[in-house]
Amino acid sequence: MKNISKLLLLFVIITFVTNCGPTKGKSSVGVIKKPELVIEEDLYIPVPKSERKNYFKETSLETKWVDSIYTQMTFEEKVGQLFMVAAYSNKDTVHFNAVEKLVTQNKVGGLIFFQGGPVRQAKLTNRFQAKSKVPLFIGIDAEWGLSMRLDSTYKYPWNTTLGAIKDLRLIEKVGRNMAQEAKRIGAHFNFVPVLDINTNPKNPIIGHRSFGENKVNVTEHAIAIMEGIQSEGVFCTGKHFPGHGDTALDSHYALPLVNFTKDRLEKVELYPYKRMFDEGLVSVMVAHLNIPSIEPRDNFPTSVSYNVVTNLLQEELGFDGLIFTDALNMKAASKFMKPGDIDLEAFMAGNDILLFAENVPLAYQKISEAYNNGLITEERLAKSVKKILAHKFKIGLNNYKPVDVKNIASDLNTTFKDALQYQLFEHATTVLKNKDNILPIKNLDQKIAYVKLGDDVNSSFVNTIKKYTEITEISEDNIDSLKVRLKDYNTVIVGFHKSDRAWKKHDFSETELVWLQEIAKNNVVILDAFTKPYSLSAISSFDDIEGVVMSYQNGDIAQEVSAQLLFGAFEPQGKLPVTINEEFKEGFGLRTDKLNRLGFTAPENVGMSPSILSKIDVYAKKAIDGKMAPGMQILVARRGKVIFQKSYGYHTYDKQTKVSNSDIYDVASITKMVATLPNVMQQYDKGKVTLDSKLGDMLPMFQGTNKQDIVFKDLLSHYAKLQAWIPFYKNTLDAEKCPSDKIYSLYNKEGFNYQVAENLYIRNDYQDSILKQIADSKLLDKKEYKYSDFTFIILKEYLEKATGKTLDKLSTENFYKTLGMNNTMFNPLRKFDYSVIPPTENDNYFRHTIIQGYVHDMTAAMQGGVAGHAGIFSNAMDIAKMMQLYLQKGNYGDKQYFSPSTFDTFNTCHFCSEGNRRGLGFDKPQLGKEGPTCGCVSMSSFGHTGFTGTIAWADPETEIVYVFLSNRTYPGNTEVNKLSKENIREDIQKIIQEAILDK
Hints:
Blueprint: H1 2-20, H2 60-72, H3 75-80, E1 83-87, H4 93-104, E2 110-113, H5 118-131, E3 137-140, H6 159-163, H7 168-184, E4 189-190, H8 215-230, E5 235-241, H9 262-267, H10 271-278, E6 283-286, H11 306-316, E7 322-325, H12 331-334, H13 341-349, E8 354-355, H14 360-372, H15 378-394, H16 408-412, H17 416-428, E9 430-434, E10 448-453, H18 459-465, E11 471-473, H19 479-486, E12 491-497, H20 510-522, E13 524-530, E14 547-550, H21 556-566, E15 599-600, H22 610-613, H23 616-625, E16 631-638, E17 641-649, E18 665-666, H24 670-685, H25 695-698, H26 712-716, E19 744-745, E20 754-757, E21 760-762, H27 766-776, H28 790-803, H29 807-819, E22 825-826, E23 841-842, E24 850-851, H30 858-862, E25 872-874, H31 876-887, E26 891-892, E27 895-896, H32 900-906, E28 942-946, E29 950-955, E30 960-966, H33 978-981, H34 984-994
Parallel strand pairs: 1-2, 1-8, 2-3, 3-4, 4-5, 5-6, 6-7, 10-11, 10-12, 12-13, 13-14, 15-17
Antiparallel strand pairs: 9-14, 16-17, 16-30, 18-25, 19-21, 20-21, 22-25, 23-24, 26-27, 28-29, 29-30
C-alpha cells in the first residue's frame, strides 16, 4: 500500500509539472522540450544547527562591538542599516552626489555596485566609506566575475559551463579567484551562487546562470564556489530563494508563477538551500515569485511574504544568516506595491537588507510610522540591525581600511586567471556524438574544410585548427554554391559561433538550420557549437552529423581549447549540465582518445613562470634594435603544451611587413634534423643500415675512395675526418663572378631543370659533379670532431637511392603530411606567396639578387633547393611538432614513426669521451665553455642550430621544446654574426630554464 501511495504521489507531481508549467509550443526553428523531472522520494535530512559549518564564528569581541555600536545609534541610523542602495561608477557627478547624500543624510548601511570600472569603483568606495559613520557593506552581483559589471576585469565561464565540469576543485578555485578580486576592490559580498535548478529550457532570465537542471549537480557546484569565496573572507549570497529555475517569465519585468506543490519544492527547489545552510552559507537573497503552495495570497511576491521569509526560510529551514530581498526596483516587486510600501512589507516579512530601494527617504518614513504604531517592535529592528552589524564585524569593518587604488588593474588581471580558464574549458568541453570515432581527427593527410555559422568571431578557433593541419575556410552566399565547393573535402568542420555576451540571442536561424542539414547530407561533418546547450535543441535530427562538440561559449580560450579537442591534444571530460533532447540528456558526455599532439595552454599549467618568460621580449628587442636580425619567431613548449609563441619585428629592416606566427623561414641546417635525419632513422629502424655500415656499401659511388670505410656512426657524429665544406658555387662563376652561361640558364629548359634562384637554373648533370668533388676530397689528417655539411649531402643521396624517392617527397610522405607540418617544405614558392617568406640575403657574390623563397645555402641552391643539409622552410610551430616527436621517442599523433630504441641510439653521444659532443645527427650540449646552448640544459637534450639565425632544441628531462627562427643573414651575410656573438639564442634559452617553477 505504501508503494502504491508513492506511485500515486509521483503521478500527481508529474501531472503538475506537465499541466501547470508554462506551455512549450513548436517554433519555426525546432522544439525545445522540457526535460522529464525525476523527483526522488528521499528528502535531504539537514544536520543539527549546532553542527553546521561556520566560516565566520561569533566571538565575544564581536558581541561587544555590535552592542557598543547599536547602543550609540539613533533610530534613523538603525533603520538606515537596512538599506543597500545602487551605485554606478560609470555615471556622472549628479549620481555620485545623490549616493553620497543617501550615505550622509539617510545613513544607509550598504551599497551594491553595478556598471563601471574597478579603479573608479574603488575610488568611489573610499569616498563613500569616508562619509559613513558606520562602515558600509559593499556588494556586487558578479556571477561570472567582476566583468559581469565592470570593465577591464576578468570573465569566468558562465555557471552552465561550470556545471559541465566534474572536478569540483576547479570550481572552488574559481570561487577563490572571485573572492580575491572582490576583496581587492573593497567588496564584502558577491551575490553568488545561483541555486536555481534550471528545469525549464525556456527560462528567460536564469538559463546559463544556473549550474544545470540536476539538483545534486547544482548543489555540489554551488558548495564548491561558496567554499572558495567564503574561505577567502568574502560573503556569499545564495539566490533566488525559494527557486527561480522553473519559470517562464523574467522577474525584472513581471511576477513569475511557480505552480508546484510544497512537496515538490521541498525535494527539488529547496534541496540546494538545505545543503548550503549545512555547509555554512552566510546569506540568502529572496526572489520575487508567485508560489501559491507556500503563499496563498494571489500574486503575492515571495520577497515580501512572511510565510516565505520567516515561516519557511527562518523557522522551517532554520536559516539565521543575513536575508536580502532581490532588487526592489524589479517590476515583479515594484508593480505589486509602490516604493516605501514595498520596503516596509519586505522588512515585516522578515528580510534584513532591502536591496536597491527606489526611494529610501520614503521607505524610512514608512518604517518609522510602522515602528511608532507598534507594527515593528524594537526587538524586530534590533534583530536585523545587530545581525547586520555582526556581519560587518565578521568581515573586518570594525577595523576598516580604505582600498589601495594602486595597481588594481594588474592585480585583478594576473596571468594565472588564463591558466585556470584553460583548465576549466578543458574539463567542460563536451563531446556529444562521435560516429565511427571521427573524433579526434587522426588522419591529417586528408582535405578538411571549415564552414562558419553564427554571427560572432571565430579567429581563435580557426587559427588554432590551422596549427594542426591544413584547413580551407569556405564561405558562400548560397547553399548550392557551398555544396559544390565542399564536394572535394573529406571532412567539414562546422563552427557555430554566437556572441559570448550573456544576454545576446544564441539560437540558430532557420537558414542556418537548413544549411547545416544540407551540408551534413553530403559531407562528413563535425559540428562544434560555441553557444548555450539549449541552442542545439532546434536541430531536428543529428543523424547525418558524425561528430558533435558542445563548447558552451565563444571566448578565445574556449575556441582554442575546443580546437585542441578536435585534434586530440587532451581527453574531454565534460558532461551536459542540461538536457538538449532525448539523445543528449543531462549528465551525458563521451570520452575520446588523447593523441599525443601538441596542445596549447598557459605557462603556469606546466610549471612555468609567465613573468620570467616575458623577459624573452627584452632579448628579442635587443636583437632587432641591434640589427642582429630584422625579425624572428620564438616558441616554447613544455609537457606537450605550447606556452609561448610570439613573432617579433619585420621581414626586413625597412619595416614594411610584420612577422607573423604563420610566416615561414629558411631554417638552414635545421633541415638536417627535420628532413634528412628522421628519414635516416626510419632506415635504421627497418634494419636497412646499422651503426657499423660502411659508406662504400651504402653508396657504391664511394667504393674505391678514401671514404669507403667510413662507418655510419662516425659519419653522423661528424667524426669521419670530412672537410667542413667546399664552396662549390665558386667554380661555376665566370670571370666577372657571375653565374657562367655554360652551367646556368636564365629559364627552365631541357637539361637545366634545377632552379637556383629566380630566373636561374643549373645544369642537371652538375649534381654528379658536387658528389664527385666530395668523393674526391681529401680527408683530414686527424680524427677529431669536425662539423661538415658533407654528411647530410651524402645521406640525401643515400636515401634517394635506397627509397627511389627524392628527399622532398620522402619527407612530406613519411612525416609532414601526417604530422600536420603543412607549412614545411623545400622550395616553398611552389605553394606559398613571397609575402609570407622573409628574405635571407641580398646576394651580391653568386646569384646577384634578393634571396626570398629560395634557399640561402649556395650548395643547396645548386641542388635545386632540395638538399640534405639545407633547404627546408618552415615556421616555429611546425618545427616544434618534429621536436615533440623526438621528445616522445618517435611517436606523435598516436603514430609510431620509429622505435624508442632508435631515438635513444641517435640521441646518444657516442664519442663524448673523445671530446666530441655530437649525437647521431643531433647536436648536443657543449662539453666545455663553447657550444650551441646556454650551458644550462641537460646532457640528454638535443637539437640543432642554423646559419640563418635559427635553433631548435628539446630537453627530455624538462620536457621543453625551444624554437627560434630568424633571417639574421639579411641583408648580407658578410657582416659579423652579431646574433651569435651576443648569445641571443642562448640567453633566451637561459630565460626559459629560469622560468621553470617545479625544478
